[in-house]
Amino acid sequence: MDVRLALIGFGNVGKGVASLLHGEGERYRTEYGVRLVLTGVADQGGAAVNLEGLDGFNLLEAKKRHGTVAAARDGVQGLQGAHFLERAAAHVLLEAASTNFEDAEPGWTYVREALALKMDVVLASKGVLVLHYGHLMRIAMDRGARVLFSGTVGAPLPVLELADRVLVGAQISGFEGILNATSNYILSLMADGATYEESVRRAQELGIAETDPTLDVDGWDAAAKAAIVANAVMGAQLSLQDVEREGIRHVTPEMLSHARQEGQTLKLIARARRTAGGVSAQVVAERRPLADVLGRLQGAEMGIVYHTDPLGTVSATVQQVGGIPTALTVLRDVINLARDRGWSSPSQA
Amino acid sequence: MDVRLALIGFGNVGKGVASLLHGEGERYRTEYGVRLVLTGVADQGGAAVNLEGLDGFNLLEAKKRHGTVAAARDGVQGLQGAHFLERAAAHVLLEAASTNFEDAEPGWTYVREALALKMDVVLASKGVLVLHYGHLMRIAMDRGARVLFSGTVGAPLPVLELADRVLVGAQISGFEGILNATSNYILSLMADGATYEESVRRAQELGIAETDPTLDVDGWDAAAKAAIVANAVMGAQLSLQDVEREGIRHVTPEMLSHARQEGQTLKLIARARRTAGGVSAQVVAERRPLADVLGRLQGAEMGIVYHTDPLGTVSATVQQVGGIPTALTVLRDVINLARDRGWSSPSQA
Prior knowledge:
Distance between the termini of chain A: 18 Å
Oligomer: homodimer
Shape of chain A: globular
């Protein structure tokens, strides 16, 4: 069937979603029996809406030339909020606005409005999840809506899918992971002798680090991911400030070279574990053996290790991230949702 | 809702299923909103059937004392085949008979009978999958039935789940893995200097290798898994004899020690890749760097590496297998199936 999508935010992730639907939509239709139709896109300047499906190429052109999708063929200046959602008549809201750890806006307002309309929600940004997790899930349950967010925790690393589909029937006592690729990239360069400043600059030149690398190098991004995973798979109710946090600014090439002499390295590890009081989470730059499943992750690689009973220790790593992973994981969530909802026809496989 | 299960075979896997339902059934009910009821079990001596649910403890006792579940409280001597399936009135057939690479019986007959009754099927043994894959999937599609088999390919390693739920939207160009834990255990002991014979004996003493280790050490098990994965995730139609195969009998401690001097080791690798003619698969004992994601797997560890576009290289490994993994993966398939079918109530998570 046709699954109508409304997209909030038209930055890298939003543009990636539009590009993928433009280029790969037909393949998704053949392979998964579901036609994904982008009926609305909103950014700070307004929105574009077309129930037959927006032209992704035209949206990208309008954004590039005029800075807003409101300038596209189906654009409406100033259209936002519930009015936008109602006109887009979507089955699923894709929330891909910039991550905002202060008040999670504008995502949080959009998400509540979408749930009020009984839309399902796919989140690409983390603000709502680390500030309003319990509230979000209560509203979703009341409304019978699904909320998916696999792209927020180290996509394409299968962090949430492992817990949801693979560790079924097992109990998760804790996890640890390298969930922030940027800080791991910087630490890897430093392990090869570069200074912290050189390493940050090189990561910025390659587009791996932002102009302001604070969220990555001070551990905020990893801490948000630790909270999200702990909430989603261990039943915790952690906010960002509940996560004990340190970053990598204090790490020196000398610390890394000393560690290496003992067969170890330094990694920024995000973890959570069950305690007497519930679930505690932390992000810490700590020594790991070089042969360890996390210790050996180089460059922009990421990894997750689940400790479970009775399945033992189950890990996943991503060796190499190509293309446009977050946009693709947003659509992965949509396709999995469509399958769970019975909206898709069975594929031939 | 109640999901009625009929189980074929009461060896290690079947007994594990009965034990888990006995011990953990209530937890599954709370956590996944689905009550799993074992209504029938058949072995070579007959069957036991009770629509209210069989007593797992009583089945285990009967099997231990009399060698067949037909001696249990609800037992019927000689009850088998379609008569058994009809009386068990199950939603799902669990096929856990001994793996038979000759003609896949008795599993293949049971599976066809179950599909004729529109039951879904969860396979724990590989015979049907490597001898009749195309036929099996055609019947299942005709009947609108689902066939799951995540326990056949290196459980609890998430081989099929990665492809199904995580690599959604990506294209898989190939995979390689260590999918046979026994041969990896033997190779690990040999890398530490033990002879082949000593290593096999130790693996047998620990219950890791069978009395007749042929299936493992000659690569049959790994080849079957390579065919199953290639069929399931790459659209291949390979039978067991289509897989180029070698084992580890020819490997010597000297070969491993030479490899180590060059930072390498020998591993039994199962792989498949797309070729001009379709998909080709092989099992080969080959050199891997010790730092490689597969090269570093020790003892009974297993791993899978998918090569994809555009998600890059996505891997999963299992560091330590505890408890009763295959039985648990059978129930994992059942729970995932129940969720896909809409038979389960949403959990609180």
